[in-house]
Amino acid sequence: MPSHRPEQRPSEGVAATPQPPYYAVIFTSDLADDTDGYEEMAERMLELASRQPGFLGFESAREEGVGVTVSYWSSEHAVVQWKRHVEHRLAQKMGRDRWYRCYKVRVAKVEREYGHVMQDT
Amino acid sequence: MPSHRPEQRPSEGVAATPQPPYYAVIFTSDLADDTDGYEEMAERMLELASRQPGFLGFESAREEGVGVTVSYWSSEHAVVQWKRHVEHRLAQKMGRDRWYRCYKVRVAKVEREYGHVMQDT
């Protein structure tokens, strides 16, 4: 499937981030009833984020209205730059006014990581 | 609905964590084809985690096999204690052997958070 996104999904959804330290922005949201235009905005924000300096990857899932999206960034500066991005700010405002019943954003410094990839048998 | 879980879901899925700093464990997984017994294990692990010292809450969603679960902990010590929990260790092994095609665990220190709750109109 052709994609404008960087190569960051080695296994359908798990981001291939570098060695820590780096930053994670954990965005958890509970959608309100009016989700008109939401999907398009989310797609667009992902596209914009992936072009930002310092973007390392993202992971996301939504289930029964609750979404957990984690984006990874090379530095805190990169996190702040993305937060201030003009179009992203507009989306944040629309999110508050309309799409999200509730959301929380947590900025966290990833200190260590470990993982596992199933071996082919 | 009766529950043994602490009060940590003010809005269907967004955890009511305290002021930072605290720790986040970001667990992202891609399920393999054999998911027999997986749901029961996931439920059980959540139940066990919520009884651990230092547990602050969790957020979770799964979509098309990709799951993003973030659990929050009061300290790094609490994170390590949970990782070493005997029954949790067994579940980790079964996960590697059977349920997860791929997973990644990231331990991160939450430095700041902000959020929004929609006002009733």
Tell me about this structure.
- 2 copies of one chain form a homodimer.
- By secondary structure, the first copy, chain A, is an alpha+beta fold.
- The first copy, chain A, has helices at residues 38-51, 76-84, 86-99; strands spanning 22-31, 55-63, 66-73, 100-117.
- A 4-stranded antiparallel β-sheet of chain A has the order 2-3-1-4.
- Chain A is globular and about 40 Å long.
- Chain A starts with 21 loop residues before the first strand and ends with a strand.
- Strand 4 of chain A pairs antiparallel with strand 4 of chain B.
Reconstruct the topology from this structure:
Two copies of one chain form a homodimer.
Chain A: E1 22-31, H1 38-51, E2 55-63, E3 66-73, H2 76-84, H3 86-99, E4 100-117
Task: Identify the notable features of this structure and list them briefly.
Alpha-Beta Plaits; homodimer; alpha+beta; globular
In short:
The structure is a homodimer of 121-residue chains. By secondary structure, chain A is α+β, with helices and mostly antiparallel strands.
For the record, give the distance between the C-alpha atoms at the N and C termini of chain A, rounded to a whole number: 26 Å
Which assembly state applies to the chains in this document? Answer: homodimer
Low confidence ranges of chain A: 1-10
- Specify the CATH architecture of chain A: 2-Layer Sandwich
Described by the principal axes of the CA atoms, the overall outline of chain A is globular
Kindly state the percentage of residues in helix of chain A. Answer: 25-40%
Mean pLDDT reading of chain A? 88
Task: Please outline the major beta sheet of chain A.
Answer: 4 strands, antiparallel
Which band does the percent of strand residues of chain A land in?
35-45%
